């Protein structure tokens, strides 16, 4: 039945200490809905999905599922205890004669149902959870990061499967291309409030920024009203013997309203600093050969990577992308061929397996026990790009709070673990970044910042990723590993690679990073960045009018102080300090106005 309600949440409230995760939430999911569930890491996306699945009991409110409606939930960390194989788990809710459904899904997702549970990796377990959900074919599917640990072929198969299904679904994902293709509505969680937009993910960021700008304007007006009422309250003491107690109470109410507003979570203060420049040649390989048993990884592969290149490696899971990456840096020896590394290389690695993290140790210990970050004789300091910093202050830059510092790393969400790895990575000076699946679990805002940092990074980047949008935005060269030892070099990102193979028409231009192609072949011209502001630039442009207004008010105040009669003769020190402050504020005003004009011109060009 078209538009029939499948799930209804009414008056849902939930608090895990501190600010509420949700407060008086009302939500209806209907037949045919294809919903993107978005929000910052830690905003409550996975928790809301679990409430919808009936796995988390709210503090207040009700969950209503009509009789006969089946709701299916894909777990990020499924419990496979009691099952011998992944296929046994995936088919556990099916009738015996329906096992063929698991086989059909397993082929598309490229996982082996016969794989013993005890030897399965985390990614294989998650693919089994996804296969279980798809094989059961419920009326409503709740999908939490289904593309994590899928290769691009499996992601595209899942896209086609979800595009053709009549089943409603609510989807959490960091993969922009995946969200844009599949969703028709957007749920946005922000500080305990859930907003719905009857349009897919495409256009979400503009909608979000508009709401934030309106919120900032309303807060600015409230602040001005509080200041005006506070001024009246002070001046009223001398103007009347009795103050208007109603206005005093109103002022208290305004201040209470302002203090009750939950501040937006800031963006992580990511900084990436290149060390001393490497030699012009970073790595050169000729005639590379590598096989494991009868399985070839690369056959007669040659590549030349120069300083500043951004090289992406793509291909199915298990094809050998990480192995090739490790051969390029000298960690794994080839069976044949030569590997020549450049001079003065400072290598920093982001490992997709999170093996660099001790899950049982605290965030504090994971930072201070790192030999490359340890400050001799200081148990609370870490070395950040050559400068000692307190571990708490540094981790706060990555949006961790003090309560998390002594918690074990295994208690963190996937996105928080990724941010902790970035904190370790970015503490080091480097000129060669090895990024193995860096986008898994990161929210859209952090991905934007990481992309901007890589664009400005003066070093070289070697990247393994299944995120097509991220590859398009970062890579200047794509190496496609297609199995049987074939590795082909293409100029540009994912879309360029597809176009060159005749698999897709080139999409609209996207910003491309600096850097040259990694192969001595004609390179597509860099795509223009004019007219496209980064996430940070957009917010700076929105904030600057308020900054300029504040500076102008300070200039007026300082100017009035300078006009005081005989100030120079009576208080020469105060006069000098006021004059210096006025000159400094005038310089700041000029700089802010120039910055606003630059960003405004860039936004409108």
Description of the structure:
The protein is an alpha/beta fold. Among the domains are: 202 residues, 3-Layer(aba) Sandwich (Rossmann fold), CATH 3.40.50.300; 53 residues; 70 residues, no CATH class; 70 residues, Helix Hairpins. It is 39% helix and 22% strand. The chain contains 18 helices and 21 strands. The protein has a six-stranded mixed β-sheet, sandwiched between helices. The longest helix is centred in the middle third of the chain and has 36 residues.
Brief rundown of the structure:
It contains 18 helices and 21 strands.
Keywords:
605 residues, six-stranded mixed β-sheet, alpha/beta, 18 helices, Rossmann fold
List the helices and strands and how they pair.
Layout: E1 5-15, E2 20-30, E3 34-38, H1 45-53, E4 60-64, E5 71-74, H2 86-90, H3 100-109, H4 122-136, E6 140-144, H5 152-164, E7 168-172, H6 176-182, E8 185-190, E9 193-197, H7 204-239, H8 245-260, E10 281-292, E11 295-306, E12 310-314, H9 321-328, E13 336-341, E14 347-350, H10 363-368, E15 374-375, E16 378-384, E17 387-390, H11 391-396, H12 414-426, E18 432-436, H13 444-456, E19 460-464, H14 468-474, E20 477-483, E21 486-491, H15 494-500, H16 535-562, H17 567-570, H18 572-604
Helix pairs in contact: 3-4, 7-8, 7-16, 16-18
What about the largest sheet?
6 strands, mixed
CATH fold-type name of the domain at 5-206: Rossmann fold
Structural class, please? alpha/beta
- Top CATH class of the domain at 5-206: Alpha Beta
What strand order characterises the main sheet?
5-6-7-3-8-9
Helical coverage, percent range: 25-40%
> Unreliable runs, pLDDT <50, ≥5 residues?
237-241, 505-531
Distance between the termini: 48 Å
Shape: globular
Per CATH, the superfamily of the domain at 5-206 is P-loop containing nucleotide triphosphate hydrolases
- Estimate the mean pLDDT confidence: 81
- DSSP E strands, number: 21
Gross CATH architecture of the domain at 5-206: 3-Layer(aba) Sandwich
Whole-angstrom Rg: 28 Å
Proportion of strand residues: 15-25%
**Helical run tally:** 18
């Amino acid at each position: 039945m078209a538009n029939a309600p499948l799930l209804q949440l009414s008056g849902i409230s939930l608090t895990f200490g501190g600010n509420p995760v949700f407060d008086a939430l009302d939500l209806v999911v209907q037949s045919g809905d294809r919903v993107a569930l978005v929000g910052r890491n830690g905003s409550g996306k996975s928790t809301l999905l679990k409430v919808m699945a009936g796995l988390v009991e709210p503090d207040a409110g009700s969950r209503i599922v009509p009789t006969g409606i089946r709701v299916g939930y894909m777990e990020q960390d499924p419990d496979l205890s009691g099952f011998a194989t992944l296929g046994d788990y995936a088919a556990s809710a099916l009738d015996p004669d329906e096992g063929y459904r698991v086989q059909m899904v397993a082929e598309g997702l490229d996982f082996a149902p016969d794989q013993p549970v005890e030897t399965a990796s985390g990614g294989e377990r998650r693919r089994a959870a996804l296969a279980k959900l798809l094989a059961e074919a419920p009326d409503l599917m709740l999908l939490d990061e289904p593309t994590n640990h899928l290769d691009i072929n499996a992601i595209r198969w899942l896209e086609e499967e979800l595009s053709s299904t009549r089943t409603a679904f609510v989807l959490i994902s960091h993969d922009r291309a995946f969200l844009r293709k599949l969703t028709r509505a957007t749920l946005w969680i922000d500080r305990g409030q859930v907003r719905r937009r009857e349009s897919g993910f495409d256009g979400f960021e503009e909608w979000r920024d508009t709401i934030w700008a309106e919120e900032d304007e309303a807060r600015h007006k409230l602040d001005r009203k509080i200041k005006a009422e506070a001024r009246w309250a002070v001046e009223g003491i001398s103007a009347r013997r009795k103050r208007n107690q109603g206005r005093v109470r109103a002022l208290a109410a305004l201040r209470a309203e302002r203090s009750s507003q939950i501040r937006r979570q800031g963006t992580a203060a990511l900084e990436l600093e290149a060390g001393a420049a490497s030699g012009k040649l970073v790595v050169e390989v000729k005639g590379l050969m590598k096989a494991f048993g009868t399985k070839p990884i690369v056959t007669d592969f040659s590549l030349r990577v120069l300083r500043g290149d951004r090289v992406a490696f793509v291909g199915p899971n298990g094809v050998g992308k990480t192995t090739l990456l490790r051969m390029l840096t000298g960690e794994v020896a080839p069976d044949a061929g030569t590997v020549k590394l450049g001079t003065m290389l400072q290598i920093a690695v982001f490992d997709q397996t999170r093996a660099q993290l001790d899950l049982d140790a605290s965030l504090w210990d994971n930072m201070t026990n790192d030999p490359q970050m340890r400050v001799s004789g200081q148990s609370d300091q870490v070395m950040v790009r050559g400068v000692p910093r307190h571990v708490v202050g540094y981790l706060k830059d990555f949006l961790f709070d003090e309560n998390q510092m002594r918690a074990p790393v295994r208690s963190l969400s996937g996105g928080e673990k990724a941010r902790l790895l970035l904190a370790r990575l970015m503490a080091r000076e480097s000129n060669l970044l090895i990024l193995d699946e860096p986008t898994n679990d990161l929210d859209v805002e952090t991905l934007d910042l990481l992309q901007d940092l890589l664009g400005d990074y003066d070093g070289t980047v070697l990247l393994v990723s299944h995120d097509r949008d991220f590859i398009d935005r970062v890579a200047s060269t794509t190496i496609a590993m297609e199995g049987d030892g074939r590795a082909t070099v293409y100029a540009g990102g994912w879309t360029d690679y597809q176009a060159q193979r005749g698999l897709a028409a080139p999409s609209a231009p996207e910003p491309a990073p600096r850097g040259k192609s990694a192969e001595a072949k004609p390179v597509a011209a860099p795509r223009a960045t004019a007219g496209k502001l980064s996430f940070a630039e957009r917010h700076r442009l929105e904030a600057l009018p308020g900054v300029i207004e504040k500076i102008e008010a300070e200039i007026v105040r300082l100017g009035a102080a300078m006009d005081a009669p005989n100030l120079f003769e009576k208080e020469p020190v105060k006069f000098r300090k006021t004059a210096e402050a006025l000159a400094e504020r005038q310089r700041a005003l000029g700089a802010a106005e120039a910055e606003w004009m630059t960003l405004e011109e860039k936004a409108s060009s």
